[in-house]
């Protein structure tokens, strides 16, 4: 199972084995990772699953869709490497993926 590293704004790190086919958000929710609330359940309507993806992983992700970008534009402190973790589907190639949560999400 791919290992996903979640790092909060304080630098606390959790490394979780997430099943292929789940989203990075679902991996967090199922393992009580703080900082990812996913209020809308993954329907791109809340941005409480906003993460910063470590730069070297950005081009391994599916292209960002307009609806995701629109939601990110309204998120807290969006950056170039912002993604909605509910839109990142875990697969073998993402083994080792590192995401950080914004300081507002604790
Ligand atoms: S869970 Fe709401 S936008 Fe991702």
Task: Characterize this entry briefly.
With 106 residues, the chain is an alpha+beta fold.
Structural notes for this entry:
The chain has 106 residues and is α+β, with helices and mostly antiparallel strands. It has a single domain (3-100), classed as Ubiquitin-like (UB roll) (Roll). Helix content is 14%, strand content 19%. The chain has two helices and five strands. It has helices at residues 24-30, 66-73; strands spanning 3-7, 13-17, 50-53, 82-84, 98-100. A five-stranded mixed sheet has the order 2-1-5-3-4. The longest helix is centred in the middle third of the chain and has 8 residues, at 66-73. Bound molecules: FE2/S2 (inorganic) cluster. FE2/S2 (inorganic) cluster binds at residues 25, 38-40, 42, 44-49, 71, 84, 86.
> Bound compounds, please?
FE2/S2 (inorganic) cluster
| Beta-strand content | 15-25%
> Which structural category fits the helices and strands?
alpha+beta
CATH superfamily: Beta-grasp domain
Q: Strand arrangement, largest sheet? A: 2-1-5-3-4
**Known CATH architecture:** Roll
Q: Report the end-to-end length measured between terminal Cα atoms.
A: 26 Å
Question: What's the order of the H and E elements?
Answer: EEHEHEE
Structural domain count: 1
Q: What's the number of helices? A: 2
Main sheet specs? 5 strands, mixed
User: How many DSSP E strands?
Assistant: 5
Please bin the fraction of helical residues. Answer: 10-25%
* CATH topology tier name: Ubiquitin-like (UB roll)
Nearest-integer average pLDDT: 96
């Amino acid at each position: 199972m791919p290992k996903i590293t979640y790092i909060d704004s304080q630098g606390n790190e959790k490394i979780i084995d997430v099943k292929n086919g789940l989203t990075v958000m679902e991996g967090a929710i199922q393992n009580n990772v703080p900082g990812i609330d996913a209020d809308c359940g993954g329907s791109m309507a809340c941005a409480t699953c906003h993460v910063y993806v470590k730069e070297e992983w950005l081009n391994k992700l599916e292209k960002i869709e307009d609806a995701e970008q629109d939601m990110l534009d309204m998120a807290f402190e969006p950056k170039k490497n912002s993604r909605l973790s509910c839109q990142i589907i875990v697969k073998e190639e993402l083994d080792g993926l590192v995401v950080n949560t914004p300081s507002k999400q604790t």
